[in-house]
């Protein structure tokens, strides 16, 4: 049964830019999408570069007006009621926009004053957020001396200074090492447990599987599919995948021998099967001798590539 009163609802949402393409037409970055986000869930946007994710996030953040369709956030129109909407949002951009010449604590205090919070409230909130971000021992240190992971945690903490109901995160862990990514995942999971609604874009499929209750896969400004990570995997791929590697130039010939359930990549073959070990036995019985063979669980990355293609996009 569908839940009532979504926190965010988009119907026929479009965004067109005046930039002209080769045919002299405006560029439609978002081509009429429908989605709902409910209170307390983590909702993700996946898609290749140019799919329309960032344009959608900018409309959600109230900094870019929709060209067509309707968008309601917290029951409000983000264009007509932009100030009221933004007061209840937290935004974590792709690039940290911290003031590197200020200390960690000063970055939080100054940002809190932008929201009109009293100095007493800002001081109390700063202490809570330093603890949340595990930066208490760095409070007096200038941001320019922080590691990338620390800066990212500070950027998230800063976005929480106004106690937002919705937190927008644009590729929150890009460029971080695995340890820093896992620390951030833990912080974001805690926010979700506290009732904060998370909306994120990411290029890391494992991140989407870890964090998102539901997500949409976008391609060419449209939504290709929507569901939980598990639902999407079950809908589009088999339970397991057999990866086979061969010497250069042999992939196409081997694929023809194995059948149309095999997908050809530049560096390997993917055999989608419910039982990967059985598929490997079948390949061996067919006279196929791969250099390496790997059986793994099907993942959201398989879904992503199935829906959006495997060619590079700029």
Automatic annotation (TrEMBL):
SMART domains: AAA (SM00382). GO terms for molecular function: ATP binding; ATP hydrolysis activity. InterPro entries: AAA+_ATPase, ABC_transporter-like_ATP-bd, ABC_transporter-like_CS, ABC_transporter_ATP-binding, P-loop_NTPase. Pfam families: ABC_tran. Residues 8-245 form the ABC transporter domain. It is found in: Cell membrane. GO terms for cellular component: plasma membrane. It comes from the Bacteria. It is a peripheral membrane protein. GO terms for biological process: response to antibiotic. Keywords: Antibiotic resistance, ATP-binding, Nucleotide-binding, Transport. Belongs to the ABC transporter superfamily. This is ABC transporter.
